[in-house]
Write a structure and sequence with these properties.
Elements lengths: L1 E2 L5 E2 L7 E5 L9 H4 L6 E7 L11 H20 L5 E4 L2 H12 L3 E5 L6 H14 L3 E5 L21 H15 L36 H6 L4 H14 L4 H4 L12 H5 L5 H8 L5 H20 L21 H9 L5 H13 L4 H14 L4 H11 L5 H12 L14 H8 L4 H6 L19 H7 L14 H19 L1
Parallel strand pairs: 3-4, 3-6, 4-5, 6-7
Antiparallel strand pairs: 1-2
Length: 487
């Protein structure tokens, strides 16, 4: 190491380094910001700056994943001769300090699309420009940037099907190419460049609620690639038939890996495209793109309805009902199974996400924002774009939303998508001995069936907290009144 006249340090006789500011791109393959720095020493850095993320800093489950993902990334970097630098924010100050320490000529990063991200990136760019350091932002989070697709009226899409067609047409025109391989070797980061121990960020829980997390998940790029490989090999062919069945292991579970950028959507698209059964799977990947498109163009939606008329919807305040929903004690087995699965492993099957969201917003009339906040803290794949779009879609107030009259019946949905009750038995063990005919409606079961199953309603398992038929009529009346007042 040697110093220049400004006190900055160079990497010996090598070219000036580039700082790689890692954010939600915790991988080394298919990494445009890294690719653009090839030929120069790289200083990989992660800046922990939750205070810059406004009211949406990472929740507890996301922090757990982040800790292990950063650990895996550091391990991958060390295998190539480098290491991960960890600093605390604000990002502009942390990156400026690192530029001074390393003599870096540029900082590269990938754009993010949350409402607060543009302000953070603008602050970073100002600080770097003032130092004479080049700031370069790249697109690496999505298949295509959200400001590259518009409808025939030159406005953002708000309906999925035409968005899907437009995106697929764009990808076909550009002939999506295979992702570049990661670099085999990277220049070592000199020991003089300090880094915080990862444990100092306090990302892991103080009490061990993460036992099942550790058993199920493998954060990091290697885990992401392995999960994709196994899904394409074993489950893609049956995905369209099995994806709505929470009792089957029929989905990819790639969502947390995609969220943290351990694998890129381009890698997933290229690996799956053209394989038997891929169309239904890739359509779900485009839903992810659609959610980011909406968040980018309508940044108020994490807290406010896209359809502004829904600001006047007569939501109810019911802390007791909210708590029972959170704890999986509603008395509706498929709903309770989903909420308990969420708490245990930080993830929930997508079909069940719709069911529990419908139950909260339509059976209980509790605002969708309450559900979105709970998911934000408990999901390992908590993603502001997808979380917002999913909740607004179910509540009926978002883009391409479910019709207001679509109110999922938790009994018939359970019987259809968990026909033998295997999902409920797994997550609601007090109902494990119930016959399949009654497991989704135990309150209707004959007393002798309950007794033989060891179920005492109101004791070992709760009675339903609402009557679905009555709650459905109440919700329909509320939606009808809203339409009448604002039509």
């Amino acid at each position: 190491m040697q110093e220049n006249q400004n006190g900055r340090t160079y990497f010996g006789h090598m070219a000036e380094p580039v700082i790689l500011w890692l954010r939600r791109d915790l991988r080394l393959s298919d990494h445009p910001a890294l690719e653009a720095a090839r030929g120069r020493p790289i200083v990989p850095v992660f800046v922990w700056s939750p205070e810059e993320e406004g009211v949406w800093p990472p929740g507890a489950a996301s922090r757990w994943w982040l800790h292990h993902s950063l650990t895996a990334l550091d391990r991958d970097l060390r295998k190539r001769g480098s290491r991960l630098i960890v600093r605390r924010g604000p990002a502009s100050a942390a990156l400026a300090d690192l530029v001074r320490e390393t003599g870096a000529c540029a900082v590269h990063w990938h754009r993010r699309y949350e409402p607060w991200a543009s302000a953070q990136e603008a602050s970073v760019e100002r600080a770097l420009t003032a130092m004479g350091c080049r700031a370069r932002a790249f697109d690496g989070l999505l298949l295509t940037p959200p400001d590259s697709l518009f409808n025939a009226s030159a406005r953002p899409f708000q309906v999925f099907t035409p968005f899907y067609r437009s995106l697929v047409q764009q990808l076909s025109a550009h002939r999506l190419t295979p992702a570049p391989s990661p670099p085999a070797r990277l220049a070592p980061v000199p020991p003089e460049i300090g880094s915080l121990p990862l444990k100092e960020l306090g990302l892991l829980p103080n009490i061990p609620w993460d036992r099942q997390f550790r058993e199920l998940w493998r954060p990091g790029e290697t885990g992401a690639q392995e999960r994709l490989r196994l899904f394409l090999k074993d489950r893609l062919r049956t995905y369209a038939a099995d994806r709505d069945r929470p009792d089957l292991d029929g989905v990819s579970r790639l969502s947390p890996h995609l969220h943290f950028g351990e694998i890129s959507p381009r890698q997933v698209w290229h690996a799956a495209h053209g394989l038997p059964g891929a169309d239904a799977f890739l359509r779900q990947l485009v839903w992810r793109e659609f959610s980011y498109h909406l968040l980018h163009h309508f940044p108020h939606t994490p807290s406010e309805p896209l359809r502004s008329v829904f600001a006047a919807f007569p939501w109810q305040t019911d802390p007791d009902a909210l708590r029972m929903w959170q704890q999986g004690r509603t008395g509706y087995p498929i709903v309770d199974a989903g909420m308990r699965q969420l708490w245990a492993i930080g993830w929930m099957h997508n079909r069940v996400r719709m069911l529990v969201a419908s139950f909260l917003t339509k059976d209980l009339l509790i605002p969708w924002q309450e559900g979105a906040r709970w998911f934000w803290d408990t999901l390992v794949d908590a993603d502001l774009a997808n979380n917002t779009q999913g909740w607004q879609w179910t509540a009926g107030c978002g883009a391409d939303a479910a019709p207001y009259f679509r109110i999922f019946n938790p009994v018939t949905q359970g019987m259809k998508f968990d026909p033998d009750g295997a999902y409920v038995r797994r997550w609601v063990p007090e109902l494990a001995c119930m016959p399949s005919a009654w497991i989704h409606r135990p309150w209707e079961a004959p007393q002798e069936v309950l007794a033989a199953s060891g179920v005492v309603l109101g004791d070992t398992y709760p009675n339903p907290i609402v009557d679905h038929a009555i709650a459905r009529q109440r919700a329909l009346q509320a939606y009808a009144e809203l339409r009448r007042r604002y039509s």
